[in-house]
Amino acid sequence: MPTPEATIDSAQIGRIISSHTDLEGPLLPILHALQDAFGFVPSQAHAPIAEALNITRAELHGVISFYHDFQTAPQGRHVLKICRAEACQSVGGKALAEKTLAKLGLDWHGTTPNGAVTIEPVYCLGLCACAPAVMIGDKVIGRVDDTRMDSIISEAGA
Ligand code: FES
């Protein structure tokens, strides 16, 4: 369960950073530890990380945005990933994604107001033969149509 942004403990951020600074290449372990602790990499950690590792905030942003697994905001209880790669796009994945986003009133990376579902793009789930594919939690689902998507998001509580 992600920590709400307003309740982020800066002392905990400091402890996480200082417990990794002796490592060789400490940045990724620090980012992973922050994400494990809070469910995402809080913006409050950026300045202390940059200072501790003697890097610029731009360098830090570059690393966080390069690795798609790092989240920069609290996520919903369920993360619904919709495949945007070619095989899925060519058999209705694009329309499925657009309808889902419109139905939930979200943009990519958005979370429903009740905190139930966050929508993320993904680029191939290895289920191209059963496109269009989505993933909810750790479950991959193929041949998703509007009806199936409705039940996925309703089961997730959106
Ligand atoms: S392209 Fe969507 S699962 Fe491979």
UniProtKB/TrEMBL annotation:
Has the keyword Iron been applied to this entry? yes
Q: Where does [2Fe-2S] cluster bind?
A: C83, C88, C124, C128
**InterPro entries membership:** NADP_DH_HndA-like, NuoE-like, NuoE_N, Thioredoxin-like_sf
**Cofactor(s) of this protein:** [2Fe-2S] cluster
A single GO molecular function term of this UniProt record: metal ion binding
Q: Which UniProt keywords apply?
A: 2Fe-2S, Iron, Iron-sulfur, Metal-binding
- Kindly give the SUPFAM superfamilies that the UniProt entry links to this protein: Thioredoxin-like
| Pfam families associated with the record | 2Fe-2S_thioredx
Q: How is the cofactor bound?
A: Binds 1 [2Fe-2S] cluster.
CDD domains on file: TRX_Fd_NuoE_FDH_gamma
The text of the family note is:
Belongs to the complex I 24 kDa subunit family.
Protein name (Swiss-Prot/TrEMBL): Formate dehydrogenase gamma subunit
Q: Which organism is this entry from?
A: Pacificibacter maritimus
